[in-house]
Amino acid sequence: MKNLKKLELHVHLDGSIRPTTISELLNISLEKANKLAMVSQKTNSLKEYLDKFDIPLKIMQTKDNLTRVATELAEDLQKDNVIYAEIRFAPNKHLEQGLTLDEVIISILKGLRKVPIKTNLILCMMRGDSFAKNLDVIKYAKKYLGQGVVGIDLAGNEAAYPVNDYKDLFLLAKKEGIPFTIHAGEADGTLSIINAINLGAKRIGHGVRAIENKEASNLIKEKDITLEVCPKSNLDTNIYNKLEEHPIKKLFDDKIKVTINTDNRTVSNITLNETYKELKTTFNFTDEDLITMNKYAIECAFLSELEKQEVLDLLIK
Ligand SMILES: [Zn+2]
Fold first, then answer.
1. Within a domain: residue 1?
2. 226-242 pLDDT, tens per residue?
3. 182 C-alpha to ligand 1 centroid (Å)
């Protein structure tokens, strides 16, 4: 699995901070850092999983720390043989110690650029945040579009904040020509996926519960939507009890475009290599299947056609 070249389109910066970095910066033991940042056993809900972000966010409030965390994630992606990644984070969550949105974005880009792999950023709007705050995310995505930022997302507690509450914001993003993906069909059911697609999302974060509903899976095929599947994360938030129950293979066999991602490397205590290995063992995916999924990732990446061709050349070289 290590030799296979990969893309990763769904990975959160804050959820992927190295425990060793938490330990060092907060001056606590590694054991304690692990306990604070990782899910040790099954959580009861997405809400409980999301609480694991408190510690990383405490640290990621200065330019230096943001740069460091970004560099370290890019290095970790490199170890997984990732040839292109879209890394996401919610800019508004890093303003607690007076940083501006420009400083947050620039510090993270600076960190990523220290590592020679192709990466871009997706800025997350947050469920539960005010309209004004999420509007800022759109404004800054527009400002940095093509300069390290390639799109936006909607993240956070799906069960409590339905996707249609954010309709006006996505209409605006569409008008501004900003590509977007939406977390949907994770904690909430299939209606959430249908609504996200109808708002114009070309990619769905998770979306695995489309398997429960013909209307949703047909719409995904009809509109050529790609799912950013994060199997370990779905186990951690208790959507499925064990990997054997995960629908990724069924979705793939049903010709739905699935891609493989970690979501949160630290919170879920997983690498992309491990994810591939577990999927291969559990579902007997062939190397060819895995390459097909990476081709799906290239097709739906927020890149120009020329850049997609360059990544494809790298993938099959
Ligand atoms: Zn996610």
1. no
2. 999 999 999 998 889 99
3. 9
Q: Indicate which CATH number applies to the domain containing 21.
A: 3.20.20.140
Say how far apart CA 47 and CA 70 lie, in whole Å: 25
103-150: pLDDT as tens digits:
999 999 999 999 999 999 999 999 999 999 999 999 999 999 999 999
Task: Show the domain range for 289.
Answer: 6-316
Give the number of domains in the chain.
1
Distance 55 CA to ligand 1 centre (A): 17
Is the Cβ–Cβ distance between 259 and 279 less than 8 Å? no
> Percentage of residues in the chain with pLDDT exceeding 90?
88
Ligand 1 (single-atom ion) residues, CB below 5 Å: 263
Concerning whether 75 is annotated as a catalytic residue, the answer is no
User: pTM value?
Assistant: 0.97
Contact 124, 78 (CB under 8 A): no
- The residues that bridge with 12 in the sheet, in sequence order, are 88
DSSP secondary structure letter of residue 269: T
